[in-house]
Automatic annotation (TrEMBL):
Pfam families: APH (PF01636). Residues 93-268 form the Aminoglycoside phosphotransferase domain. PANTHER family: AMINOGLYCOSIDE PHOSPHOTRANSFERASE DOMAIN-CONTAINING PROTEIN, AMINOGLYCOSIDE PHOSPHOTRANSFERASE-RELATED-RELATED. Residues 1-20 are annotated as: Disordered. Transmembrane segments: none annotated. InterPro entries: AGP_Transferase, Aminoglycoside_PTrfase, Kinase-like_dom_sf. This is Aminoglycoside phosphotransferase domain-containing protein. It comes from the Eukaryota.
Length: 302
């Protein structure tokens, strides 16, 4: 629609008067995952519209507000953010909560696309710049593991908590955190597994204070232009995780962990090899594969 625009004010926690896909019928879908339950559209006016399943109490604008007020990390502006219930009956029962966002479309190229065309000097500058951003994040701490708004942590990454468990937090002590981390495996009928958990608990490293963690630092979430980082996106999973979580999560990114940029960034981060080892063993104990469980048990024989 020629000349149409959306109000560019601080985030409005409510929908615009006209749904963005009706206001901009020629919007282009640029991302679709999980059977179309997560999609992003380029509205063609410098804004993106995206929707995804809603996580109770978690709003990206709250995360962005915290990042913007405490760091120099470039992030997109969120203009509208709202939640709808889709598929409920005439009495309002049932249905799925859908999270909607209209946000700035930062003009930049995903780092994984730009990297092959950068010279070594530009590459080193990006690594330093991103390392500085991670240091800024690490200075934002919390006495408990929790969401940004102070509620329970939604671990959609399924690393800290098994099966995407939502902890009843905030978790303010490491004993409570351990119980949440081992919630399912503690029900194993195997005495050997139970002893392995006791042995693993004995070597658990410090987790607190919790640190503000992006938790999805793929190169596709880093936008660059003219040899500099101009945007870091994908903050929907950000929360206060154990202080070692950003480091550990990188090793769960498959081939992404071997990208030269990621390797260089990791070399600048505080290293937590013990936490990486602990989470690898715990992941194996959680497995339904008997060989994985046996491997974990062997690692913990004292």
């Amino acid at each position: 629609m020629s000349g149409a625009s959306l109000d560019q004010f601080p985030t409005r926690h409510g929908p615009p008067q006209v749904h963005p896909l009706k206001l901009y019928p020629e919007a282009t879908r640029v991302y679709s995952r999980e059977g179309g339950t997560r999609e992003i559209y380029d509205l063609g006016n410098g804004h993106l519209y995206k929707f995804r399943p809603h996580r109770h109490g978690v709003f990206e604008s709250s995360i962005h507000d915290l990042i913007r007020s405490t760091t120099n990390i470039p992030i997109p502006t969120i203009y509208h953010e709202w939640v709808t219930t889709e598929g409920s009956d005439t009495h309002g029962w049932g249905g799925v909560c859908v999270h909607h966002i209209i946000m700035e479309n930062i003009q930049g190229e995903a780092l994984h696309n730009a990297w092959p065309h950068l010279n070594s000097r530009d590459g080193e500058r990006l690594v330093r710049q991103f390392g500085d951003y991670l240091n800024e994040l690490r200075r934002i701490t919390s006495p408990s593991v929790r969401s940004v708004n102070g509620g329970p942590l939604h671990d959609d990454q399924r690393i800290l908590f098994d099966r995407g468990y939502i902890a009843p937090g905030p978790l303010s002590d490491e004993g409570s955190l351990w119980l949440a981390m081992t919630r399912h495996v503690r029900h194993s009928p195997s005495d050997t597994v139970q002893q392995a958990l006791i042995n693993l608990r004995a070597v658990m490293i410090d987790c607190l204070p919790a640190v503000l963690t992006h938790i999805d630092l793929r190169t596709s979430n880093i936008l660059v232009r003219d040899g500099s980082i101009v945007g870091v996106v994908g903050w929907e999973h950000a929360a206060f995780y154990p202080c070692w979580m950003e480091y550990v999560k990188i090793w769960y990114m498959g081939n992404e962990a071997e990208h030269p940029f990621v390797v260089s960034v990791v070399n600048r981060m505080p290293a937590y090899p013990a936490a990486r080892g602990l989470m690898s063993i715990l992941a194996a104990l959680r497995s339904t594969n008997p060989l994985m469980v046996e491997w974990a048990i062997q690692q913990l024989i004292i």
